[in-house]
Amino acid sequence: MIYDNLVLHEKIWELLFTAHHREHIPHAYLFYGPPGSGKEGHALELAALLNCQNGEKGPCGHCAACKQIRSFQHINVELVLPLPRGKKELRGNESPLQALTEKGMVQLRQCMARMGEDPYAKIEVDGAKTIIIQSIRDLKRRIYLSHPDDGWRIILVFDADQLCTPQPEAANALLKILEEPPDRTLFILITSRITRMLDTIRSRCQQIYFPPLSTHTIQDDLTEQGIAEASARVIAHLAGGDIRLARRLVDTMDSLEKDLEIIGRAAFSNNLEHWQRLLKRVGDLKKQSSLELSYFFRSGLTFFRDLLVMGENPDSQAIVFIDWKDRYVAVLQKYTQADWSACLDILEDTLQNIKANGYLPLMGLTMLFDLQDAISGKPAQTFQVDRWLAST
What we know:
Blueprint: H1 10-21, E1 28-32, H2 39-51, H3 64-70, E2 77-80, H4 102-117, H5 133-145, E3 153-157, H6 169-179, E4 185-191, H7 199-202, E5 206-209, H8 215-224, H9 229-239, H10 243-249, H11 253-267, H12 272-288, H13 290-312, H14 325-334, H15 340-355, H16 360-376, H17 385-390
Parallel strand pairs: 1-4, 1-5, 2-3, 3-4
């Protein structure tokens, strides 16, 4: 294998290897599934398998072909990905990469170098929101005018759903190639949002679903990297099957502790300063990215889930924040009527409302009021509009 740090989906790899062994490789695969499930890494492993000079049971990882594929330098491997439209007018045989700014090219090279080391790295360029039509036209010109250097020509299409945004012109151009693909050419389209793909493209690909990795698998991966078991347990649960996110979270354990303090203090007190601190933190995260915002709320959800689990079984080994066990005991002894399940619903609803551009101060305050009602054991009150109309 070309990567020693890729968590292999054994059944998927067996399917791909068998297709190669029996010479039943289709002209196009569609790898889909959640982020961090290893789709891109498996695509590169397959590219190496089809071009390796030595491998029999898999790519050897040491020959020139394997090393070149891992560094995106093999002549048989083409990479198509979202790019900024750029201001430069492209001519004739010019590559779309020539429209990138110097900063964009540096960023692209850095991302590719990172992916050469980490199969879960993300290749992206600032301002890239679509796979531009010029990329497909350039690809078409080159693949029909040349032949693969032995082995197979592999076309990797990262973030393939962006073929269709804002308009499906690039998708339609690719569709024409898929209808009459060149010999010994394999397209591997990769996406985390398959519902955004054109049905006509999906129907011309053999679809393979990559499920999220298990919490146990991610935890083992982190401990093998030297992460303390307690920290690996927390990160693996927060990652939600996304090993890319898990590896990012390794450097955020300090901020995680602070975020839990912010959530806990705001939820269990009427101190205006604590409330303002939480609202500011949520506002700052919303400006940064939806991922960071989701991570914050996921921490809160895990916190209340631990309370729910311990409330049902004080000796449970299923809690995530093990170091907080003594605090959980104290909370459960004080708030014997709390509805921890309702707290989970409140946080999930608030996150969705904020992502839908709900008015943040109102959403945050409503969340805190509702949390305190649930913690105190007050049942949720449904607003009776008919009764209100009758009284007016």
